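About this split. The held-out portion is used to measure sequence recovery: a designer receives only the structure tokens and must propose an amino acid at every position. Recovery is the fraction of positions where the proposal matches the reference. Here is one held-out target exactly as it appears in the evaluation file.
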């Protein structure tokens, strides 16, 4: 299973959702999980130091002639049952999404979670070809407009339930025509846990409970 988390606006909570989902799937899948970072924040969100050496950018730059297991060999340990392919340095190319998904699909992990970040060309390509594409969205009118105009409809939405908003899950479902698969509470305790680098050590219960049914 390949799950891609993406957004249409910066700071939506995509990395936090991708990190929590990868931790959850690593516990659940007998063959563990692989997290793939297109945005650059996933190691820090998982409480890791920046992995040294090449990452996804460098792997994509080599092209199709790269050894079949080369991407897997770039992965670092990121927790019990969880491995991580970091973003690497420099800009991400536009293409290569299908090649990336084929490479992770061949790998040993039972589940793959891609943090694709805001909707770049590569993010849309990876989201479009994944088993499950989850748009992480705040109940914000401007974000909803962008989601409607995006070149891809997600399989489902993960809604970050900020308080005092007038839009809710039913509005999002009606406008986008896709289900809201999870409603994650907006909880300052989640942000503090990320800030302290403790997400993987103490995955907050409300986050875990909300995402259990998301993938
Ligand atoms: N459910 C939540 N409750 C409270 N704060 C949250 C929640 N989810 C994320 N945050 C906080 O919101 C901020 C943005 O989160 P995050 O980095 O995951 O967003 P992003 O969509 O990945 O951003 P970017 O577009 O920069 O990649 C962070 O400070 C994070 O700790
Ligand atoms: Mg991010």
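Reference sequence for scoring:
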């Amino acid at each position: 299973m390949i799950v891609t988390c993406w957004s249409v606006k910066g700071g939506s909570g995509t990395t936090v959702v991708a990190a929590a989902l990868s931790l959850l799937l690593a516990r659940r899948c007998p063959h563990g999980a692989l997290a793939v970072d297109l945005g650059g924040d996933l190691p820090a969100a998982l409480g890791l130091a920046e992995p040294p050496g090449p990452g996804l950018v460098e792997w994509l730059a080599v092209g199709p002639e790269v050894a079949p297991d080369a991407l897997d060999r770039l992965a670092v340990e990121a927790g019990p049952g969880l491995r991580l392919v970091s973003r690497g340095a420099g800009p991400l190319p536009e293409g290569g999404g299908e090649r990336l998904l084929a490479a992770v699909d061949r790998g040993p992990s039972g589940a793959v979670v891609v943090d694709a970040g805001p909707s770049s060309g590569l993010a849309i390509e990876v989201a479009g070809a994944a088993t499950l594409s989850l748009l992480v969205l705040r109940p914000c009118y401007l974000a909803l407009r962008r989601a409607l105009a995006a070149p891809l409809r997600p399989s489902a939405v993960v809604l970050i339930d900020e308080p005092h908003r007038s839009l809710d899950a039913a509005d999002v479902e009606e406008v986008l025509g896709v289900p809201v698969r999870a409603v994650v509470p907006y909880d300052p305790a989640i942000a503090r846990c990320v800030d302290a680098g403790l997400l993987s050590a103490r995955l907050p219960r409300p986050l875990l409970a909300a995402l259990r049914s998301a993938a």
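Annotator remark: The mean pLDDT is 95.
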